[in-house]
């Protein structure tokens, strides 16, 4: 990004997770018009931009923010102790853990938003405002789902980050975290690094592309002499025991191809999450399960495995859905929370006009449709209104 263009940037929001830091900010494209219906509101056109960093490399993130002068895109606090400090919306555990670091290094306060609330806010924002955001993926077929705004709830949100949170969503701001599992994206990457010696998530994914899980997983057919166990609905190719062949193969870890190990691992984690998600959907009679979090990364094999698990266990009753901006749900939720502050709490910063209020969705604000840029899943074209 050209730092010279940063005068157009506003509303930085952060989601600082156990593995990744996600950033969302609004970048105005220079068009600025007065709203014909009110001379107090002007509408700024631009796009939402996204960036991510590894949490362990938080210094790179701080440098990115400093270099692009994003930290000046928050809002100024004029109340009491926070006098004259800029604050930026932040969610995730790191909003607590790194608050002092942001204050010390960038001179900004992190205005903390609850992590679950932000995830839900992010999904609702995407579903309500960005066309062709949600899709199903089964048997290699991707199908966009247009969700009727009047028929959005309830749904189960399964956020697969380092760990996994499962949240029943009943409305705007109406939700309950009903379950979770520590076997998530962090488990896949952590075990993957130990078992394959890979250096990164991308490398682990690349390995998994070329692997065959049947080399290590014990299949029903391995136990049943090549036949299905049809009486209980298990085909011979179903996995009876993930990594089960390693028990009796007489092999050491080095004797397995890292590709096959990576594939088994990806399958095991995705299957398990799909199954737990289904069981929780069943508990509450939820038919729609939305999967988010950076673990998914739009990867076909992951989505297919999750979809098959949900389809298999629910006998086709429940549907797994995915989101194009799956990794930025929390950050988007924190971003949209700028709008819920009262006008008086927000003061101008040097880059935007006075008292910015986001106008992407929400009951108290006029709705301006967002047109997503379909050629580039990273940015979302949108408008915000400044009052
Ligand atoms: N470039 C990457 N580097 C590291 N992990 C990645 C990367 N891309 C995808 N992942 C996967 O995404 C997971 C992190 O997802 P996400 O950012 O949604 O969670 P988080 O916010 O860091 O975790 P938590 O919410 O549990 O604190 C990692 O554990 C890993 O499985
Ligand atoms: C602890 C959080 C919420 C942090 O994002 C996440 O990593 C998680 O949901 N872990 C799973 C914890 C559990 O429910 O077992």
TrEMBL record:
EC number: 2.7.1.33
Signal peptide range in chain numbering: none
Keywords: ATP-binding, Coenzyme A biosynthesis, Kinase, Nucleotide-binding, Transferase
An example molecular function term from Gene Ontology annotations: ATP binding
Pathway listed: Cofactor biosynthesis; coenzyme A biosynthesis; CoA from (R)-pantothenate: step 1/5
SUPFAM superfamilies attached to this UniProt entry: Actin-like ATPase domain
Reactions catalysed, as given in the entry: (R)-pantothenate + ATP = (R)-4'-phosphopantothenate + ADP + H(+)
Pfam families: Fumble
Domain of life: Eukaryota
Entries under InterPro entries matching the protein: ATPase_NBD, Type_II_PanK
EC main group: transferase
GO biological process, one term: coenzyme A biosynthetic process
Protein name: pantothenate kinase
Protein's organism: Cardamine amara subsp. amara
């Amino acid at each position: 990004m050209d730092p010279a263009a940063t005068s157009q940037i506003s509303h930085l929001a952060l989601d600082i997770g156990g593995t990744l830091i996600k950033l969302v900010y609004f970048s105005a494209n220079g068009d600025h018009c007065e709203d014909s219906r009110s001379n107090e509101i002007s509408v700024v056109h631009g796009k939402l931009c996204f960036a991510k960093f590894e949490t362990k490399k938080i210094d790179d993130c701080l440098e990115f923010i400093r270099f692009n002068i994003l930290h000046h895109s928050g809002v100024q606090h004029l109340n009491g102790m926070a006098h004259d400090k800029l604050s930026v919306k932040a969610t995730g555990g790191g909003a607590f853990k790194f608050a002092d670091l942001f204050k010390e290094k960038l001179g900004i306060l992190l205005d903390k938003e609850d992590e679950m609330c932000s995830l839900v806010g992010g999904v609702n924002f995407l579903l309500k405002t960005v066309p062709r955001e949600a899709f199903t993926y089964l048997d290699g077929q991707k199908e966009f789902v247009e969700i009727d705004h009047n028929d959005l709830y309830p749904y189960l949100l399964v956020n697969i980050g380092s760990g996994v949170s499962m949240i029943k969503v009943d409305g705007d701001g109406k939700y309950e975290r009903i379950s979770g599992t520590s076997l998530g994206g962090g488990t896949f990457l952590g075990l993957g690094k130990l078992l394959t010696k890979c250096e990164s998530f991308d490398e682990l994914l690349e390995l998994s592309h070329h692997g065959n899980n049947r080399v290590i997983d014990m299949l029903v057919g391995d136990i049943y002499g090549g036949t299905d166990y049809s009486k209980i609905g298990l085909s011979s190719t179903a996995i009876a025991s993930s990594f089960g062949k390693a028990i009796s193969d007489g092999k050491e870890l080095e004797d397995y191809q890292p590709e096959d190990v990576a594939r088994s691992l990806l399958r095991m984690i995705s299957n398990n999450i799909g199954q737990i998600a289904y069981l929780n959907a069943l508990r509450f009679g939820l038919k729609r399960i939305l999967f988010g979090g950076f673990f998914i990364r739009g990867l076909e094999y992951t989505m297919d495995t999750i979809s098959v698990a949900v389809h298999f266990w629910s006998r086709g009753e429940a549907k797994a859905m995915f989101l194009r901006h799956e990794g930025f749900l929390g950050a988007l939720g924190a971003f949209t929370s700028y709008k819920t502050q009262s006008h008086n709490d927000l003061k101008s910063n040097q880059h935007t006009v006075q008292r910015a209020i986001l106008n992407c969705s929400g009951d108290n604000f006029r709705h301006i449709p967002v047109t997503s840029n379909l050629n580039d899943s990273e940015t979302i074209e949108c408008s915000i209104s400044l009052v």
